[in-house]
Amino acid sequence: MPIVNRIADLQPEIQAWRRDLHAHPELDYDLPRTSSFVAERLREFGCDEVVTGLGKTGVVGVIRGNRTASSRDAKVIGLRADMDALPIEEATDLSYVSKRQGVMHACGHDGHTAMLLGAARYLADTRNFAGSAVMIFQPAEEYGAGAAAMLKDGLIERFGIDEVYGMHNAPGIPIGQFATRAGPIMAATDGIHIRIEGRGGHPGSAHKCIDPILAGAQLVTALQQIVAHNVSPLVSAAIGILAFQSGTGGSVIPQTAELRGTIRTLTPEVRQLILKRLSEVVSGTALSTGAHIDLTCQPGYPLTVNHEVQTELAIRVANEVVGEDNVLETPPAMAAEDFGYMSAARPGAYVYCGNGDSAHCHHPAYDFNDEAIVYGTSFWIKLVESALAA
Predict the structure, then answer these.
(1) For the chain, which end, N or C, has fewer CB atoms within 10 Å of the first or last residue's CB respectively?
(2) Considering the entire predicted model, what is its pTM?
(3) CA geometry: angle at 214 spanning 208 and 219, to 5°?
(4) CA dihedral angle for residue 370, residue 371, residue 372, residue 374, rounded to 10 degrees
(5) Fold of the domain spanning 188-299
(6) Which CATH architecture group holds 5-185+303-387?
(7) What is the largest CA-CA distance in the chain?
(8) Contact 265, 274 (CB under 8 A)
(9) Per-position b or e across 72-109, b if 16+ CB within 10 A of its CB
């Protein structure tokens, strides 16, 4: 069956939830309206448990199946949707455009939340599975590591989750297609902060100064050699300097400069190599320029890894929903996802659901494509019924 028939009938209602969420976006952990909206729907559906306040503003709904299985075979699987928006001014003329200035659902989390709510409604009615399905509605995916906060609050242990799955819409992949892969699927990130202390003075007496802008410029260039010449061309990695702040102009060589950026890697070995070389390049630049340079690396989201068995299940389910020709193998992405915390805690898989020819995520003209609802929601339903078959 291409999609679950009842979900096609429910599509207008799920779409209405999605558009309501789109019009009322909230950021990070500050999700009072969104969390309440989700919890109210889950209670209306008759979930066996509805828990709020997990990971500050996360919401969990538990649905127990009616089919019997031995205690050894009864599993618990978690399905995760993110709820937070982005600090972006929306640039659309949609009838449901964001009502909050400078905040919008520019990454489709409104769609993710609505699709998982649709799956919860169907599963709470039918319960045609053994074991339990745990619906995880997570805050602060964009900034703040909401997945880690929910894990810290006992998400896995409290609900006995054995496996966990995530889904994200994908602009550029046609509606009615899915994409995934086993192994690393999204990168680990580390933040870079470099502070350069030079010796300020007059540009007419530059020989008496240590120019932090010159040292910073050398660093921006030198850091690019790490990926180009120290990392195998068969392995993906990225270093980006995203901010360079120094000086006020005029006839002044400034005293200090600050650089901020990011490292993105797909294996722990390459991450360690880059961190080592980064430190060496910074030390060498300090020696050659005479500047004092402090390097701070802040670990960000971990590598998101799809486990083999769970990925095979996700592919089988996607094949059932849209047909084998519409299930693609995707290369790893250098973007990061805090779902990596969850898939490190339990075996799992992360799947992309096509969003069609839309603006890219994090763009002010982006909008989740409501035509994807029936496919993503059907995938969630069939995943539960397949993973928890009696």
Answers:
(1) N
(2) 0.94
(3) 140
(4) 100
(5) Alpha-Beta Plaits (3.30.70)
(6) 3-Layer(aba) Sandwich (3.40)
(7) 84
(8) yes
(9) eebbbbbbbbbbbbbebebeeeeebebeeeebbbbbbb
